[in-house]
Structures are given as C-alpha cells and as structure tokens.
Amino acid sequence: xxxxxxxxxxxxxxxxxxxxxxxxxxxxxxxxxxxxxxxxxxxxxxxxxxxxxxxxxxxxxxxxxxxxxxxxxxxxxxxxxxxxxxxxxxxxxxxxxxxxxxxxxxxxxxxxxxxxxxxxxxxxxxxxxxxxxxxxxxxxxx
Length: 142
Hints:
Elements: E1 2-9, E2 12-18, E3 28-32, E4 35-38, E5 41-43, E6 47-50, E7 53-55, H1 68-75, E8 81-85, H2 95-103, E9 109-111, H3 113-125, E10 130-134
C-alpha cells in the first residue's frame, strides 16, 4: 500500500490510498473527514469491513451513539484482529460497553478512523483476517 495523493481543502484532509491490485479483497482506497472509500466507492455511513464482506449499515452516527447492540455485532464477527475506528479522534469506550467482545476472549484495537483504515489495509496485505468497524461522522452517518 502506498500513499498516492494527499489533498488538503480548508482543514478537510482526504488521503488517497492505493490498494494492492494483486489481491481480490476489499480495501480502503480513501479516508476523509466524512467518508471512507472501499474499492473506490465513497461511503458516508459508519461501516463494518472484512476482506470479503462489507456491512454499510453497521454503525452509529458518532462515537457517542455507539451502543451495546453495535458491540454485540462485533463480538460475533470472526477475525484475527478487530479494529474500532472511533471517528476523527480516538475515544475509548467504557470497559462495560466492550464486555461482549472481552467475553469471547478477544481484544479490540481502538484508534481514530483514519488510523484504523491504514491499519486494516496493512493487515489485509499481510494476509491477516482483519475486521474494521469504522465510525464515520458527518451528515451521511446513520
């Protein structure tokens, strides 16, 4: 994965990422303040992404709207590494909210959404089964 282009528009930074064209998996090709692009398709709602699966209706409109129901879905997702992108800033959910994940014996890596996007692409390029739950803040989020 290489950074292809960096575009700055009045405090709105969009990073274009170039996916490894040799892999058939879903990858993140751009990440901005109010969107994430998966295989070139711009999405403006919080989403759940695995190398072979995309759920465009997974998530909350913001970190503050993250609920136990969202976490339950993550707890039942089969993956090697679970990433939670909390929006443009890194926020840590209370341990009680993450309990369903911990009860499965798994952990979760919590980071801001742009960092989760980069990490997801790196892990998938290494052949790891990564799951990225990405909170996208903005008008299009649900």
